[in-house]
């Protein structure tokens, strides 16, 4: 019998049996140094979505809400329509929120100073049943979302806090990998889809931060209840790469 945390030799290499192998953690696929995570659970019973910060996030994984895919090439973010929400939303999420100082402090920057970029390589793999809407990347300011990448059925598009922006494709197929980028400077947000500039949106905002993951736009309960939506219906996104830079 091999005991937990014991060492053994495979092909001349020393390995450690310590439960979940280190390579299975999302932090081994994505650089999560300056992020925190919200998941659609309330395991601490405070009435709000659980929040996982650094350094805990470095060795955190929870099935099926936040875990590596089978190939360890991407991180799966899943949120169910009956999940616990954050205090400011009626919709559940499994989503990263940008931080600074090695994850110790909330990020907050302005559209009129510097250049701020987020790039994501991802695939949307599942949608809620009755209202198949999901947000898979966004910029949020001190009060509300500013701009998001959103899928409704097969329509993948940019949303400006409730107003439609550029359509990226009207025929998105679940599981298709794509790249998106927000680039903010001079009170403009430039949005890219598969490396092509698709929109320049003039807007001023402050107290801003990037978000990436799964933010379903349907719920089986509460103020955002969608009639007929089951609580175990869910949205899911796999992120293969995400990076943020500030200049």
What quaternary form is this?
single chain
Please indicate the count of domains.
Answer: 1
- pLDDT < 50 runs, ≥5 residues: 1-20
H/E series, N to C? Answer: EEEEEEEEEEEEEEEEEE
Strand percent estimate: over 45%
| Proportion of helical residues | under 10%
Q: Largest sheet at a glance?
A: 9 strands, antiparallel
Task: Kindly provide the radius of gyration, computed on alpha-carbon positions and rounded to a whole number of angstroms.
Answer: 19 Å
Number of strands: 18
End-to-end Cα distance: 54 Å
CATH topology: Jelly Rolls
Count helical runs. Answer: 0
CATH class: Mainly Beta
What's the CATH architecture?
Sandwich
Helix/strand structural class: mainly beta
Average pLDDT metric: 92
Shape: globular
What's the SSE blueprint?
Elements (H helix, E strand, L loop, with lengths): L6 E4 L2 E4 L18 E5 L10 E3 L13 E3 L6 E6 L12 E8 L4 E2 L9 E11 L6 E8 L4 E8 L2 E6 L2 E7 L7 E9 L2 E6 L2 E7 L6 E8 L17 E13 L1
Antiparallel strand pairs: 1-2, 3-4, 3-7, 5-6, 6-18, 7-8, 7-17, 9-14, 9-18, 10-11, 10-17, 11-12, 12-13, 14-15, 15-16
Describe this protein's structure.
The protein is mainly β and 247 residues long. The protein has one domain: Jelly Rolls. Helix content is 0%, strand content 48%. The chain has no helices and 18 strands. The strands form 3 sheets. Strands 3, 4, 7, 8, 10, 11, 12, 13 and 17 form a 9-stranded antiparallel β-sheet that branches. A 7-stranded antiparallel β-sheet has the order 5-6-18-9-14-15-16, with no helix packed on it. A two-stranded antiparallel sheet has the order 1-2. Strand 1 (7-10) and strand 2 (13-16) form a beta hairpin. It is globular. The termini are far apart.
